Predict the 3D structure of the following.
Amino acid sequence: METNTLDKNTPAVISSQQIKEIIEKQRAFFNTGGTKSIKFRKQKIKALKKEIKANEQAIFDALHKDFGKSNYESYITEIGLVYEEINTTLTHLSDWAEPRQVATPLTQFKGASYIHRVPYGVSLVIGPWNYPFHLAILPAIGAIIGGNTCIVKPSELTENTANILAKIITSVFDEKHVAVVQGGVETATALLAERFDHIFFTGSEYVGKIVARAAAENLTPTTLELGGKSPCIVDKDADLKVAAKRIVWGKFVNAGQTCVAPDYLLVHEQVKDKLVSQMKAVINTFYGEDPKTSGDYPRIISRKNFDRLSLFLDQGEKIIGGESNAAELYIAPTVLDNISWDDKVMQEEIFGPILPVLTFTDLEEMIHKINGRPRPLSLYYFSRNKKKQRRIVEAINFGGGCINDTLVHLGNPNLPFGGVGDSGMGAYHGKASFDTFTQQKSIMKKATWIDVPLRYPPYKGKLGMVKKIMK
Ligand code: NAD
């Protein structure tokens, strides 16, 4: 009978020695080939889905305790997405894992070429607090379906969700396959001091750089899912009624604490007043006269973030919302006008329910302005004009986004999700998760019944022939 390094009631603090022991166990298990059969991978994620289903209420309760999230929001943004990811994977995993045959050049006659997808080995997943269930478990699913072992370190700021996550993982997986290690910066630092075969990090740009530096020590392949300031552009020909609803939803879901939330609004001068008044009406319909009393409007995660966001409330002019309550960590859905590109609120990712509004008149100037700033994780463009839609997609560098909507691109498991430049590197979801957690191993299989002598010395008289083939 094997012993578990982690007790079922996982202690909050874990020693470096315990971390080393789990990694050793996982490496030994990986080396037995135990993670590799496709049947085993499928069985495990099926069991995971069953266990999540059995614990749905406990997940709702944990998310509510952590930051007042409603069950509905928790289902669509934390649990439902995980089910969809598992369903997609169960349908396609066998196909994704098949070696792919590719063409072989004539110079390699008689050969056949294949790409095999093989797991890296022991992987590490570090999660943030803002979607603490989904952003820890979705990458872990990628690691499992890729045939890796995995250590998951959820955020310490959402302790209740981390506890239920640990309970679910411990019931489905042996620690030699998947383990949850809880703790804060100290624990993350101890984990990063060890050698992993792949690291998947979701969080801030600042910590992303720490992770990348640590990974560089061991040349560990790393996926970084970071944040940034995602623009939301509304052009003069947009359907303003629909835009208002979709922007308000995308900005204020999770009280703006969403990596892909519209960070700021760039609206064509001609339609600004109309859009803002539509948004005001929509906020009222969604959350009522006093959003503080709405069961559908979450709270800010911590006092530290509340204080950081409060400084933004003094910027420009509050044209919607602006109320806050420190005792309840509440900030109303807020829209700020009279903001310039140089204001503090435009210098860092907001990550809260505050939306600054800027205007534009010339699309090309606006493209130039965005391209002069760090590359955003997402971008949203509202317009009916197909030519302009295409221009925006092609002219601006950003991770991904939507035309005439916000956020929903990340809900499609067939679309790789990730950033570029300052907003991250690599991608996941669906097949992209499988690709991220597997190495492409290239194999050329040669026949032995023929051995074309062209490549062997002496080379005299062979150059002319090679030039005819490799031209
Ligand atoms: P964070 O970077 O503070 O923390 C993320 C994780 O890193 C946590 O588990 C934390 O314990 C750990 N960590 C913190 N300091 C560390 C250190 N010095 N060394 C090693 N590990 C450390 O991020 P957060 O506040 O939890 O999340 C907010 C950020 O995450 C925002 O920038 C947001 O845009 C980004 N985010 C990105 C995505 C995405 O998918 N691209 C999703 C959610 C959040």
Summary: The CA atoms of residues 310 and 324 lie 8 Å apart. Confidence is low (pLDDT under 50) at residues 7-11. Residues 231-414 form a domain with the Aldehyde Dehydrogenase; Chain A, domain 2 fold (CATH 3.40.309.10). The two ends are 63 Å apart (CA to CA).
